[in-house]
Structure prediction request, 586 residues.
Amino acid sequence: MRRLPANFLLGAVLVSLVVGVAALSLIWTPHDPQTMSISTKFAPPSAEHWLGTDQLGRDVVAQLMAAARNSMTVALVAVLLGGSIGVALGLLASALGGWVEDGVMRLADLGFAFPALLFAIMLAAVFGPSLTNAVLAISFINIPIFARVTRASANQIWTRDYVAAARAAGRGRFAISRDHILPNIAAAIIVQATIEFAVAILAEAALSYLGLGAQPPASSWGRMLSEAQTLMYLAPQLAIYPGLCIVVAVLGFGLLGDGLRDITDPRLARAR
Amino acid sequence: MAYFLFRRTLGFVLTLLAVSVVVFAVMNVLPGDPALTILGMDASEDALAALREQLGLNAPLVTRYVSWVWNALQGDFGISHSFRVPVSELISERLPMTISLAVAGMLVTLVLALSLGITAAAQHGRAGDWGVMFLSQLGIAVPAFWLSILLVMLFAVKLRWLPPGGFAGWDDPVAALRSLILPTVALALVQSAVLARVTRSSALEVMRQDFVRTARASGLSHRRILWRHVLPNALVPIVTIVGMQFAALVTGTIVIENVFYLPGLGRLIFQSIANRDLPTVQALVMLFAAIVVTANFVVDLLYVVIDPRLKARA
Prediction:
């Protein structure tokens, strides 16, 4: 068996760690993440509070764990939602070609004019800031990304002999897209999804930091950092842990995505 | 060439128009009453009706869109509700801050990324290469706002070398520059992480080609080959990424201005959201999106300058 690339292994370890902690927080956290206790605010790390407590006496570890769960949920929903719309559009463009393909690709170009933050800003201005708006904004920017990747990969598969055979056998464009194109471009889509998962975690953190994402009392690494920023003279340690969590999660999914690409596309790996 | 310019310019104008439709649609067509958003739930029916009239909300959508675009083209973005001055005035007051930050950030990014990327490529497979690659992988994962907080904690809170945030104006240029150092570094470090990787792989690609071997064989110095022969030929992919990064950089200034309390457009946009100042938000979102589209357009034109072969094909 071929040796797995180092980036894949390291990425897999980090991702397992983050996802494991997020899953664990569903059934167990050392304390309730929301329970306040003013008498024990800014407690130093101890056997009771492993990383101490924040300005309201809430347990930092419990909050980090709950935030991991929220971050994973947001990224998962955003990538699934934006990804499936994007993949569907890309398949459609590739299957029909002509003006449909042109139209979809121009729409995708248009999507790139709006970074997630701008979209979230518009939604927040109209509906008020909320986590749902943040998820929608992150989903939205995923649509053109997946549409492009899908179309580019699908166009290659459409030139294959087995697709020509299927067409000769009288199968329709949509059936071919479903049964022959999609399974053969799944690897490229999964690689992209892993990388976009990392991007979504970063985006959620930034939006929540700016107040456009998770609203109190929901735990979020980004929100914890914006609270910690006002306290950096008093309790600088509170500004360290959530940032480290973001880095571990983003690094993990980024490395995993790179590693998956090296495995599924050895041609690319050799070229690098 | 003329046809190429014409097609690209037409595409650019059409994209801008489409962007304006999207911005207008999201801000105006989605369910929700701007007057209610601005005045709040407990506003009287009369006040709501008066504001709707003042905002021109009673006119048909298409009329409102056309007059918004028409006025915007003449530099009139309407009146800000919260500041009670023309939005264009607010923008021109704050534009210099955002532009300085973006330009300084881009310059530092280019210098850092090109030198790190080329160094890594020259050191391919050795310690320097691994170091640069590791740093850039890390840099991509570090959120700019967290890096900012860390920089403030080190250089402002602990060492007291630089101010933690805020901006006193351009009257004292030294103080102004000092308050821009940390924001610029925070903005540039994250951006250059991405660009350094692209520079490295693009340079490696070029270094494998015959003309580099010829240059080496003819006895040119290593340094001269790297900067005179490899870098210019590696520029096309680099410029593509720079163009795409401009979107990230623009978004970046919005975040960074809020971290460091800098009075630029990014800070204004958040004040406007908090004040429910929809005309200002709409104008600023349009402006930022237009900057991104323009950057992509400029990159398209730059290709031809960088790679004259494309001119023949175009």
About this structure: The longest helix of chain B spans residues 87-122.
